[in-house]
Amino acid sequence: MTTKTTNFQDLPDCALVRLKELRQSQLVPFSVSTLWRKVSAGTFPSPVRVSARIIAWRVGDLNNWIESLGGQK
Question: What DSSP state is assigned to residue 10?
């Protein structure tokens, strides 16, 4: 099995990434539980609902979050 690492710098801001891709990319250095606590607290971007069972995050929102932390795109 090959794991594909997503390079967010190569994606347009309107692209959507799912939780699995966030975890594989190590963009979020915390657990899934902590991610949802941060979403609830408003300190991490909210996901968008793609369908009844699928949620994803906009790359632009993630890039803005990284910049707000003092990181670089």
Answer: G
